[in-house]
Amino acid sequence: MSTSPFWVSAFLDLPPGGFDRGVAFWQGVTGYALSPRRGVDGEFATLVPPEGDDYLRVQALGGGPGRVHLDLHVENPTVAAEAAIELGAHVLVRHELGYVVLRSPGGFVFCFVRAQASRRPPAATWPDGSRSQVDQVCLDVPPSAYDAEVAFWQALTGWDWNPDVSREFARLLPPDEQPLRWLVQLLDDEEPEVRAHLDLSCTDRAAETDRHAALGATVGPANGEWTVLTDPVGTTYCITERKPR
């Protein structure tokens, strides 16, 4: 049975006290509705696009800083988890609801889940005519973990690998119908573990940056290809020059 995910969802894990602010911000960024909250303490919810299947979710953390983790949708989470263990992952939780929480060799948290999805949502169109979409996850990998982490994700997903993007960036290539492109960044400095951030494509980076700032984002460094921002609860992400699909 294949461990290659047929869909990938990104979870915005929001720090204690930041759930409502974080959710309101990302609803504004995406234009998506919020599902009813679920979980024992109402800690989970989904950002629901007006068209297509969902791929962005939110979680209220009980402690620690915010982060991004990924849900890999597979036919059988238990079988996929066993394959991941053989490749160097460690299981954190085997939940009675059927999902499995793991940590990659470099320390990145991800889950295997069974939820069905297949229709990639279109980009949002804003009142000024510009368009944008959260459409990429970037794994930020410290130098000492890079080779093992890349080998792990290549083997687990079975996706093609493009190492020729630039000196610091490479790509895993999921099927085009998936909602999230995968970028892998080789960090300059050592970090305790692999982390991830989200990227947006847009038709007008300046207008999109201004829109996010009005929603409460803090604008950081920019270059010819992307602008770094931080949401109101401390989550870093980027607006890029890539055009929405």
Write the layout of secondary structure elements.
Layout: E1 7-14, H1 19-30, E2 33-34, E3 44-48, E4 56-60, E5 67-73, H2 77-86, E6 90-94, E7 100-103, E8 109-113, E9 124-125, E10 131-141, H3 146-157, E11 160-162, E12 169-173, E13 181-186, E14 195-202, H4 205-215, E15 218-222, E16 226-230, E17 236-240
Parallel strand pairs: 1-4, 5-8, 10-13, 14-17
Antiparallel strand pairs: 1-5, 2-3, 3-4, 6-7, 7-8, 9-10, 10-14, 11-12, 12-13, 15-16, 16-17
Describe the structure.
It is a single chain. With 245 residues, the chain is α+β, with helices and mostly antiparallel strands. It has two domains: 7-113, 2,3-Dihydroxybiphenyl 1,2-Dioxygenase, domain 1; 124-240, 2,3-Dihydroxybiphenyl 1,2-Dioxygenase, domain 1 (Roll), CATH 3.10.180.10. It contains four helices and 17 strands. Strands 9, 10, 11, 12, 13, 14, 15, 16 and 17 form a nine-stranded mixed sheet that branches. A hairpin with a 7-residue loop joins strand 12 (169-173) and strand 13. It is globular.
Features:
2,3-Dihydroxybiphenyl 1,2-Dioxygenase, domain 1; alpha+beta; 17 strands; globular; nine-stranded mixed beta sheet; 245 residues; eight-stranded mixed beta sheet
Report helical residue fraction: 10-25%
Give the CATH architecture of the largest domain: Roll
Extended strand count: 17
Would you identify the CATH H-level superfamily of the largest domain?
2,3-Dihydroxybiphenyl 1,2-Dioxygenase, domain 1
Termini Cα gap: 31 Å
- Residues in β-strands, percent: 35-45%
Helices, by number, come to 4
> Can you summarize the main beta sheet?
9 strands, mixed
Structural class: alpha+beta
Sequence of secondary-structure elements: EHEEEEHEEEEEHEEEEHEEE
| Radius of gyration from the alpha-carbon trace, in angstroms | 17 Å
The coarse silhouette is: globular
What is the name of the CATH class of the largest domain?
A: Alpha Beta
CATH topology-level fold name of the largest domain: 2,3-Dihydroxybiphenyl 1,2-Dioxygenase, domain 1
Low-confidence stretches: none
Look at the structure and give the mean pLDDT: 96
- Structural domains: how many: 2
